[in-house]
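User: Structure tokens for this complex, please. No commentary.
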Amino acid sequence: MKLKIAILAGDGIGPEVTNEATGILRAVAELGGHDFTFTPALIGGIAITETGSPLPQATIDISLESDAVLLGAVGDNKFAALSPDKRPEAGLLQIRQALGGFANLRPSIAYEALSSNSPLRPEVTKDADILFVRELLGGLYFGAPRWWDRDSNEAINTMRYTKPEIVRVARVAFELAGKRRKKVTSVDKANVLEVSQLWRATVTEVAKDYPDVTLEHQLVDSMAMHLMNIPRNFDVVLTENLFGDILSDEAAVITGSLGMLPSATIGGAVNLYEPVHGSAPDIAGTGKANPLGAILTAAMVLRHSANLEVEAAAIERAVLDVLEAGHRTADLARGTDSAYTVVSTTQMGKLVHQSLTQAIDRRQSMHAV
Ligand code: NAD
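Assistant:
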């Protein structure tokens, strides 16, 4: 299988974690006889330093010519005085727009080995495995009119959706639920908002095409509570833009560390993959960055851009095995006892690599028997 991947490592810990993620993708290519190519391109502060722009045209071109874009993180304090449209973070918004993905996928999984890292009790997080499907190009963030009149002290944003915008993201949620535990929870505020009434009616209509998937509707306020009370009750959670932004951050506490969370944005010209965390300038260059969010993001590249489900699951299994063997980066070791071995970013990458190689060797020798 051929796969062209644009690597936008970015700033701070971005290059450190992306390096480990590409290492794992190279291992998958080698072990499976795949032809993956990696093309580096500039984004963020490093792009400003080298070209004057947070997203040079060359990066857009390389990204659009690729099958997938893997991004590290952007953000560098030395550009804090620039206006928002010139800062490193502007590059991130611009690449999202250039690629045009409308469905943001964010898994939140309670790993048993990390159960003491979550502020929630282990019996609450146990077996939680949620996939958020958040609409990314509509709603309050993009609706017009929008303005802030400083003279009258009045401001307005508009929550607007069209039926086709809801249909396309709902289809993504139902398709993915069909491959998981076959349940979609659609979140809205249909008791108050007309936009939510359209959302609910449209999702209900789309559900008829997926008879093997159960649909339930939840109001966003009670959903915020249920997520923390019984997270294992949810499979795929479908939301509009703002509700998804808030709820997916809330659900992140289930996993226990920002460094563990992957994401994918699909549906546009090219899918964009990025760990959820930022450039973490406080730990950049110290070897303390947790690369597992980026490595799990690499698994999403294989699942959603290459249809290599077995390989994606093998990476996820390798991550679990390393955690279960007691290895932790500093963020995961906080508050835990000395039964754990604290490892650096590169050591963690190597451990996942070894575990993946051993698992694939075992599988191949089983097939040979
Ligand atoms: P952050 O995610 O960079 O860091 C928040 C905290 O989590 C820090 O204490 C950091 O050390 C820790 N952390 C984050 N990722 C980690 C990892 N992989 N391993 C271990 N610890 C990790 O958020 P922030 O501090 O608010 O922002 C820093 C910069 O990143 C800012 O410039 C911000 O704009 C930018 N940012 C970028 C993205 C992105 O590129 N997608 C997302 C969020 C923030």
